[in-house]
Amino acid sequence: MTIPSANSSAGAWPNLVSLYPAYSALARESAIEMQPCPELEEAAASSADVPSAVPSAEAVVGAEEWVAAMDERIQPHQLRQFLQTSGPVNEEVLQQLLAHHLGKQQRTDLDRDKVDFLLVQLFSQRAPSNVSDSGLNFETVAQVLEPVLGAMETGEPQWLDPLNELLSEANRAKSLKWLFTNRIIERGRELKHSCGEKFFDPAALAAFTRFGFLLRRKFFRLMHQDLNVILDGLRELEGRGVEVLDCRKAQFSADEPINRLRMICQSWKVMFHAEYSSGQPLCILVDLRTAVEAALTQNPKPVELDPQPLPESELKPEPKNESLAEAQPELKAKAAAADAGAAVANAEDAGAGAHADAVPVTIETGAGVAGNDAREFDVSDAPPTWDGDASG
């Protein structure tokens, strides 16, 4: 592996200094209570063109303890959210974080999960933009990650064949509900956790990176597909005269306005850029699709019948030698009323159009959902509480 040596103070200090700005910013954004490290604070503030002198061995040990304490506090989902919401991710920062976690003599479960994410994130930035699922083989991933993992001496490990079997299952998924019900994501994590220290072998890291990249790609495709199904369903329900929906299974109200559901779905399209998860927010999305599909079944589209002609016995004879107004005086009043109503409607339409152009509707994105009283959803690694059977 291409891991910088950190056995001496001279080797450890530059790595600690390079990590400090990212760790400090992450601590602020994630509200992690941690006192600054004075030595690293001073070194990070110095000019990049003037490397800071290596301090005493005691200062280096203190800096190492500070970084180790941060490693214990930083959760994988916090690292993901920080790197994916703080602007474009710098590849140099990703490589520094990878070198730090891969270079540890004793690695924890947190280190494993962070390395897993960092490799997928790095590969996603370096991978060819036009690479297809079928064209992404193990050799391609190993070549892209060679600057970080080094040249692979062996091919894809046979003991990781279950990863390819899981990918084959995932490719058959037609919705997020199917993916969750068959526990594709959880089974992949269980396999990763069962590897122990073997997970950090270069070939295993490349295999898990390929699996994570392809599964994440499939996940987001299904997520956007579900969102589009929901939005299309809401539009269809509105056309059938439905204004509210019973969304209690999706943790909304029994009479949730369709307009509000549409705004939430639009916000979700932007919100779910973080790593895939089968946690609470996505379970809500799955259950909302179920609620919309149930409403479409309960509110069928009305059947349009062809107009039937009146029987000849009910047809009135046309008046002879009389004008329409003279034969039916009441029609004159009705026609005048209709003209007046049409004029009002045209004026209201014109006014509505002017207002629509002048006051565009905006949808807030990010962690929040549009609307003053809208719920707020966060992507997290919380254990899934969704029950596919309960969702119908």
Question: How would you describe this structure in keywords?
Answer:
392 residues; mainly alpha; 2 strands; 1% strand; elongated; disordered N terminus
Short structural summary:
The chain has 16 helices and 2 strands. The chain has 392 residues and is an all-alpha fold. It has a domain at 1-107.
Description of the structure:
This protein has 392 residues and is mostly helical. The chain has a domain at 1-107. It is built from 16 helices and 2 strands. It has helices at 9-29, 38-45, 57-73, 76-85, 91-102, 109-126, 138-144, 146-149, 161-171, 176-181, 184-194, 202-239, 258-271, 280-298, 324-327, 329-358, and strands at residues 244-245, 256-257. A two-stranded antiparallel sheet has the order 1-2. Helix 12 runs antiparallel to helix 13 (258-271) and helix 12 runs parallel beside helix 14. The longest helix has 38 residues, at 202-239. The two termini are 49 Å apart. The model is unreliable at 1-8 and 321-392 (pLDDT under 50).
For the sheet with most strands, the description reads: 2 strands, antiparallel
If strands are numbered along the chain, what order do they take across the biggest sheet?
Answer: 1-2
Order of helices and strands: HHHHHHHHHHHHEEHHHH
Backbone CA Rg = 31 Å
* Contiguous helical run count: 16
What number is the mean pLDDT?
Answer: 76
Give the uncertain stretches in residue-range form.
1-8, 321-392
End-to-end distance: 49 Å
Strand content: under 5%
Helix share bin: 55-70%
Q: Looking at the structure, what is the overall shape?
A: elongated
Structural class: mainly alpha
Strands, total number: 2
